[in-house]
Amino acid sequence: MAKIVINREKCKGCLLCISFCPKGLIGLDKDLNRRGIKPVKFSRQANLNKGGTPPKAEKETSDCIGCSMCAIICPDCCIEVYK
Length: 83
Prior knowledge:
By secondary structure, this protein is of the alpha+beta class. The chain has a single domain (1-83), classed as Alpha-Beta Plaits (2-Layer Sandwich), CATH 3.30.70. Helices cover 12% and strands 17% of the residues. It has 2 helices and 4 strands, in the order E-H-E-E-H-E. It is globular, with a radius of gyration of 12 Å. The termini are close together.
């Protein structure tokens, strides 16, 4: 079971990791960091459809395959992947 850890204080909210996650397990956090930016978060609720409701098969955080695409694309090295 892979998981990622996001340094929310370093995150500038560029959202690149959201678009590169093949499982859709990264989403925008509702809380601000110290710099006043909404960082991303690793969450089972990240993959919501346009109406704000979970899709039919809600994603579990254990669905992470550890591909490291989020960590590779992050320009500020805010993401660590653990397998």
